[in-house]
Structure formats: structure tokens, C-alpha cells
Amino acid sequence: MNKEKALLISVKQIFLIGIMCLGLITTIGTGSGDDDKNGSSTGTEATLKHEGFDFSAGVVPENGEDSDGDTINWVPDPSMYLDGASYGDGVWWRSKENTASENFSKDLGEVDLDSLTDIPTIWDGGTGIALISLQENHVYIVKCKDGYAAFLVKSIDLDTWDVAVDYIYTSGTSF
């Protein structure tokens, strides 16, 4: 009787270990682990350009005055370069809503675009504050003419200043 009981326990243990291994393989195989979520998005694809971009319409407008901002290869006013950086070292987003003292963009780092809910109350950059250029896989929130947008940077072309993004837009006070 003890051999049969021991064999039954061993079979149950092997079965449970097999189930746990199957669950681990499934998690790894589908990329559903927490580490794989950085930079994920279900936003709208777009290319931000030097000619400008209008997030609410989802287009590069014919008239630059209709855009929410544009891409540039110099740090936007009123911010300044990080030590050692200079013209042409990166690409920045220049919001049309920037003022003489504030730059309305916020780098949230590598987070899920889908996880955003709040609009920042403190922005990056501003008078006398160094502003780093756009970084791939980082999510940014920017102030628009008629709301706010958040975008995930997928790629940056330093020659054309084009920035491929996934973005979400809100005309309200939260995403």
C-alpha cells in the first residue's frame, strides 16, 4: 500500500510540475510578461514632421499655423541644451503652446501609452532648464492647441527630423 501511495503522490507532483512549466512556456511564448509591456501601445500611428502635426485631426496640416507643434533639431525656447549637447544632436518636439517661460512637453520614460490617465501639472523644460531630445521607446505628453496628446516614440530620423509615433489624443483633461 505504501508503494502505491508513493507512486500516486509522485504522479500528482509530476502532473503539477508539468502544468506549471506549460504556464511558464505560454507566458514566455506570448510575450505577456510584465517586462515586455514597456512601450506598448494601441494608439494611432503617425509621423511627426518639421512641417508640423495636428493631433486632433491626425494629419500634417497644409498650413503650419494649424499644427499643434513640429519637430526640430535644436532645443526649443525657452529651454536650453544639456551639457555637451548642441544643434543637430537630436530631435525635439516644439509645441505651438510653448510660452516665453514654459515648454509644454513631459517625458514619462518607458511606460505603456495605454496606462496614461492624467495630464501633467509640471512640464519638462522651461526658462534656464535643460531639455533632453526625444528618445526612442519613451512616452511624451504634449499640450496641443485644442487638448493634449501622448505619443510613444518608435523611431527618429536625424536627417529628416521625422519621428514615427503611436499617439492618443484628448480634448479633455484626462486620457
Brief digest:
The chain has 175 residues and is α+β, with helices and mostly antiparallel strands.
- Rg result: 23 Å
Question: Tell me about the biggest sheet?
Answer: 5 strands, antiparallel
Low-confidence stretches: 5-9, 11-38
Gross morphology: globular
Name the average pLDDT: 82
Spatial arrangement of strands, main beta sheet: 1-7-6-5-4
How many domains make up the coordinates?
Answer: 2
Order of helices and strands: HEEEEEEE
Number of helical regions:
1
Give the strand content: 15-25%
Q: Which structural class should the secondary elements be placed in? A: alpha+beta
Question: What fraction, in percent, of the residue positions are helical?
Answer: 10-25%
Number of strands: 7
Give the termini separation.
64 Å
Summarize the helices and strands and which ones pair or pack.
Elements: H1 2-30, E1 44-48, E2 69-72, E3 92-95, E4 105-109, E5 139-144, E6 147-156, E7 163-170
Antiparallel strand pairs: 1-7, 2-3, 4-5, 5-6, 6-7
